[in-house]
Amino acid sequence: MPTPDVQAAITALAHRPLRPERQQIDLRGLHLTNAILDGANLTRAGLRGANLTRAILSSADLTGADLRGANLTGAMLGNANLTGAMLGSANLTGASLYSADLTGAMLGPARPKVPPGWIVTDPKTGELTRRPADSASSPGTAPPSS
After folding, report:
1. Across the 146 residues of the chain, what is the mean pLDDT of every consecutive 10-residue run?
2. Which of 1, 5, 19, 61 has its CA 20 to 30 A from that of 139?
3. Nearest to 14 by CA among 53, 45, 41
4. Which residues in 74-99 are b (16+ Cβ under 10 Å) and which e?
5. Which among 72, 22, 29, 71 is positioned nearest to 43, based on CA atoms?
6. Is the dihedral of CA 56, 50, 91, 129 positive or negative?
């Protein structure tokens, strides 16, 4: 777990009021194991290569965040908004994605396993979309075209 002063700084950054001039939060490569960021606004945050092992990101807004190469092993991402997030080479082993929104998220060419209920719509970028309820195709593949 981050030291109390580091956790306090991360919490303050992640819960800043929304303002038009707001700059992207740059947390690239930081060690954030066990960080508590539930409900955090991390829109377009730079988290590339960050260690978020067992981090609590429930209900966090990670819209457009750069999570390429991030370690999200065992992270709690339930109800998180990952719309358009870049997840190429991210480690999602054991991560909880229950009710997370992965619409338009990019897994990249070296993609992790496709989460249940989602399909890759663009093999080049690994872009995801929610699987249609009546789709009978196998996990991680696009439904057959007509």
Report:
1. 77 72 82 92 94 96 96 95 94 90 85 75 81 61 44
2. 61
3. 41
4. bbbbbbbbbbbbbbbbbbbeebbbee
5. 22
6. positive
DSSP states along 99-144? T-B-TT-B--SS--PPPTTEEEEETTTTEEEEPPTT--SPTTSPPP
Rounded CA gap, 145 and 112, in Å? 24
Give just the sign of the alpha carbon dihedral 16, 100, 3, 70.
Answer: negative
Domains plus CATH for the chain?
A: 1-15+26-132 (2.160.20.80)
Q: What is the Cβ-side half-sphere exposure of residue 57, based on CA atoms within 13 angstroms?
A: 35
Percent helix, strand, coil in the chain, to 5, is 10, 20, 75
